[in-house]
Write a structure and sequence with these properties.
Layout (H helix, E strand, L loop, with lengths): L4 E9 L4 E7 H6 L1 E2 L7 H8 L2 H10 L11 E4 L7 E2 L2 E4 L5 E5 L1 H9 L5 E7 L4 H14 L5 H11 L5 H15 L22 H12 L11 H18 L1 H6 L7 H8 L2 H8 L8 H8 L9 H8 L4 H12 L2
Parallel strand pairs: 3-7, 4-8
Antiparallel strand pairs: 1-2, 1-6, 2-8, 4-7, 5-6
Helix pairs in contact: 3-4, 6-7, 6-8, 7-8, 7-9, 8-11, 9-13, 11-15
Amino acid sequence: MARKLKVSAILLQEYPRVYSAVIPGKWLIEHSTPSWRIKNPKKGFQRVVREQRAQEIALTVLNQGRTFPNSIVLATDKRDLDFSQSQLDLPAGIRFLVVDGQHRLWAQYYADLEANYSCVIHLGLSKVQMARMFLEINDNQKRVPSSLRWDLVRLVRPDDDPTAIEAAELVYALANDPTSPLYQRIDLTGEQAEIELKQGSVAPELKSLVSSRKAGFKDLDFDKHFEILTRFLAAIRAVDPQGWKSGKSTLVKARVLRALLRILPDLSAKLHKPPHTISAGEYVEFIQKIDRESLAPEKIIAAQGSAGIKQIHGLIKKQIGI
């Protein structure tokens, strides 16, 4: 049942009025909509948000008693609210449009714990003004580069994802260790246009690799993983040294390199040897069987359409006989 509510707030702007307030999540869900045109807010949220993402936020943020680092942006056509001594009165019948933060708010629907949401509330807006604000916020937001997100994983070191931490650490080591074939050849933040190979492309493959149970990869430590990678990359470089140096070799291209990393457990199984005991020379024997011309972007696209990593991986496995 709808009820009025008094919340702590501050007045950010006189005209048009903008407040910053702290609102309990369950009350806010009852009084919010993801679209001003939707009559049933619950169905509206279910159509607009991705359920899995909302559930993940509920599990990893709200149920952990954590708060969000940024505010939810709300708008309403109501022109004024009673405000006195840092207390804002929210009427029982008020309705807010969620301009930004739909997933964060809808996560409350799946959470066991109720959260207090930091909200920025814009008053007295027409439907057109609300739509304009929605577009300004959502169209102009610059998505954080995936490479930068991986770099932040290395710095923040989330306790619940150790394999992601190791993957980020491995990419950092490969990019910064002078003994690495990829020394200074990985863009760690996604902001160096002159470097084609991005952390956001390499790190997910390394995360899958270090967590793989095949050939015992998962049981090895960081040093062993780094040793395996440097040997394998050195073998790739040895097969086409000029192309590696110039960056023009098909083996250096991001999609091909990712597909090559996926064959490491298969090679170990093929040789019946622990991965950290395989030499660069043994890797060379397999890699030199690859028809590099067949991996040229235009030929892959002609043969495989969109040329996804899975298709390239399958082609390489077939060529080297594993």
